[in-house]
User: What shape does this take?
Amino acid sequence: MNVRRRLIPAAAATTVTALGIATLTACGGAATAAQTGKFDVVASFYPMAFLADRIGGSHVHVTSLTSPGQEPHDLEISPRQIVGLEKSDAVLYLKNLQPSVDAAVAQSSVKTKIDAASLTTLEKHGNEVGGHAASHDTSKNEELSGLDPHIWLDPVRYAQVAEGVGKAFEKADPDHAADYRKNTAALVKKLDDLNTRFKNGLAHTKSKVFVTTHAAFGYLAERYGLTEEAINGLDPESEPSAARVKDLETMARADGVTTVFYETLVSDKTAKTIAADAGLKTDVLDPIEGITGKSRGKDYFAVQEANLKALQQALGTK
Assistant: This one.
């Protein structure tokens, strides 16, 4: 993505690489992931770790580079983490979401590198995404960036990624291929069921437009015939322009919007300010970039069910 906040200079990437090489030389295996005798997988952040854990089951040891509660876009990979990456059997990441991870993976000698972005299709998304054109929105999509990485919020795309990860695990660890196939099939079935619940649950809502602080739900909106209007585009912490705020307030009145959604890992200040000015409510719509004590559920499926309920309540069911 080309969001300014998330880019790291070439010099920083060089420093990361140099630190990693130095640490590998100095520390040997002292700072590696747990030596469990299992298939060691380093995952970049929660949605990737969730896939690795569900597909790998008892045969894998999964380490996440992003701590619970940490905004993944801001991650700066440490030399210690580079050591763990270098010693792992596989790395599962989402290219162009975390630049420091991309730089470390590119320099790593890990045999199995699984880029989730290569396992499905990505699209360019800006402030407004979805099948229902909000005709009262006159913004110019000021926050347009590169390809939208938030594929895991669409159960269909996430299932496609799961299938690709399963095949990669089978190839890298053939002794347990049968179990990986079984676990992948079970996970894909659950994602298919989730897709059905979203499809049925959002088919007959009074409104088709929802407002979020962070344009993370573009794929979900397109999948279920909704329009996401994002305050900040793909960057969850950028400040919207006065013109954008005015457009959102106009659109909200025209399209019967009741709620401004915010997320758990980023400040809710902007959402609450805009909601107060427009006479709207606020609620959580979780992009599931990490699970914390504030999350409305303990795993991906539970939080997605909470997201579905929040959307149904905000959009109104007929």
The beta strands are 39-43, 60-64, 90-93, 112-115, 128-130, 209-212, 227-230, 259-262, 281-284. The first strand starts at residue 39 and ends at 43. The chain is about 45% helix and 10% strand. Residues 177-201 form the longest helix (25 residues).
